[in-house]
Amino acid sequence: MGKMAAAVSSMATLATEPGEDAFRKLFRFYRQSRPGSADLGGVIDFSAARGPRPGAIKVVRSQLNVSSVSEHDACRAGLQPVSKWQAYGLEGYPGFIFIPNPFLPGYQWHWVKQCLKLYSQKPNVCNLDKHMTKEETQNLWEQSKELLRCKEVNKRKPRSLLEKLRWVTLGYHYNWDSKYSADHYTPFPSDLAFLSEQVAAACGFQGFRAEAGILNYYRLDSTLGIHVDRSELDHSKPLLSFSFGQSAIFLLGGLKRDEAPTAMFMHSGDIMVMSGFSRLLNHAVPRVLPHPGGEGLPHCLETSLPAVLPKDSLIEPCSVEDWQVCASYLKTARVNMTIRQVLAPDQAFPLDPVEETKGDITTDGSCHLDDQRSQVKRARLSPDS
User: Which of 10, 148, 250, 337 has the smallest C-beta neighbourhood within 10 Å, fewest atoms?
Assistant: First the structure.
């Protein structure tokens, strides 16, 4: 308890020192933080075994709409019944909901495999398209699986294309010059749409339509710069974030960058919902944390997907061979899915693309997924969490 109080006090002091804005100072601090040290003492852990302590800093319980999602529909998406979920919010952040891993044991395997094997395929757009031909990026999984399997016995193998992947867009493509438009649209995956709609409904957003997704693929040295998600034409709908793989530190700030952010862990299976006031707040990911025991998987990913699945389940079997590839990848990586509704029910895209004003983007170019050893020229990445 003493270490946590000291860490919180240290963060408060750092944020008020002259120089850079408060958010940038804490972003730098956590980017350079040492896992397992007192550096992380002030980071909120919603997934603690007992749950956040009553009266813990800024943490409050959030109410979910249990009756809006049947147990049957939750199970179809690989989720526990909503009545068993835990949900939390933060004082001063209305519209922010954090749900620690509500997935059924083993069912994260499906979503990890989808992100690596299916969603990365064409016609979906990815960062590699800027530097490679369509033929070269046609099936990243098939080109990468043997290299990833071999990494279990030979760490010096060259990086696979999947390890060079940084982002993939689903549905309405996010263009970093003109933002969303109807010019490039790929069918949104039906299983992911169903999952997103169940989570949104449980959080009070019935009628949510999953229209655009941005998948971010983080290496251990990746960061996501300070930014605000403004590009959707309809801000009344929530932004949903799903995390898989290694844990990360997420910073949630205020409307301005001189407001000190709150730090929290995002573990595998965790879901975050940003709506209302919190929908337009500054946020960032300064650090992906290595497994405490070296290269390994989070405990929740050690449970395999059941061999027999319900007949109408959207969850597909995952072979031992496929999971070997996924597990090899995730030992040094994190995958995040951010799902959005772009348009209101009666809304259409304007004839001229809507561009963000200078106030909508970071001026230092930090709004992208960045890592130190990328072997592919870095492409600017859409805001995500």
Answer: 10
If DSSP codes are grouped into helix, strand and coil, which group holds residue 314? coil
Asked whether the beta carbons of 78 and 195 are under 8 A apart, the reply is: yes
- pLDDT above 60 for 7: no
Residues 6+ apart with CB under 8 A from 340: 210, 211, 212, 213, 214, 229, 232, 237, 239, 240
**pLDDT digits 0-9 by tens, 99-123:** 999 999 999 999 999 999 999 999 9
Give the pLDDT confidence of 208-264 residue by residue, as tens digits.
999 999 999 999 999 999 988 776 555 678 999 999 999 999 999 999 999 999 999
Are the C-beta atoms of residues 266 and 243 closer than 8 Å to each other? yes
**Number of Cα atoms under 13 Å in the Cβ half of residue 37:** 8
| Token representation of residue 243 | 């995390």
Cα 18–Cα 24–Cα 27 angle in degrees, nearest 5: 125
Take residue 131 and report the two structure tokens written for it.
């530097």
Is-contact 257 309, C-beta < 8 A?
no
How far apart are the C-alpha atoms of 165 and 376, rounded to whole Å? 9
Dihedral angle at the C-alpha atoms of 310, 311, 316, 320, nearest 10 degrees? 70
Pairwise CA distance, residues 299 & 106, whole Å = 11
The dihedral through the CA atoms of 8, 364, 243, 256 has a sign that is positive
How far is it, in rounded angstroms, from Cα 286 to Cα 267?
15
Question: How much is the pTM?
Answer: 0.86
The C-alpha atoms of residue 225 and residue 298 are separated, in whole angstroms, by 25
Distance (Å) of CA 332 to CA 292, 294, 325, 327:
12, 9, 12, 9
3-state SS assignment for residue 177: coil
